[in-house]
Amino acid sequence: MDDATARMRLETMLHELDRSIGVLKGDPVALQDRSAADAGADLTDADRTQAMIDAAKRQRTAVLAALKRLDDGGYGQCVDCGRPVPEGRLEARPEAARCVQCQARVERRR
């Protein structure tokens, strides 16, 4: 993928992530006369929403880092081993920072 296409896709992703985070952080519903079951459901929904916000923030950080690599000339190179990140991986995940092998190693450590 050429740099212009990568930048366009990353900037679009960043805009969409910012919009999603804003929607997810919307004002909480006012709690009125609610049953204990409703309060429990609200807590579960709040936990789910927070998990979605956290995931979107992590992806946003990855997108910003990819844009920085584009600016610095390192986009498309694995941040761990320096080998090229496969074109198909960048097509699927433009924010990818690692080649498949290095990413697998990182995920195994978790």
Q: What oligomeric state do the depicted chains represent?
A: single chain
Helical content, roughly?
Answer: 55-70%
| SS strand fraction | under 5%
Radius of gyration: 18 Å
How many beta-strand elements? 0
Helix tally equals 4
SSE topology string: HHHH
| Principal-axis shape | globular
Low-confidence stretches: 27-33
The termini sit apart by 30 Å
The chain-level mean pLDDT equals 88
Q: How many strands, which pairing sense, and closed or not: the largest β-sheet?
A: none
Q: What structural category do the secondary elements indicate?
A: mainly alpha
Summarize the structure.
With 110 residues, the chain is an all-alpha fold.
Structural description of this entry:
There is one protein chain. By secondary structure, the chain is an all-alpha fold. It contains four helices and no strands. It has helices at 3-24, 36-72, 87-92, 100-109. It starts with a helix and ends with a helix.
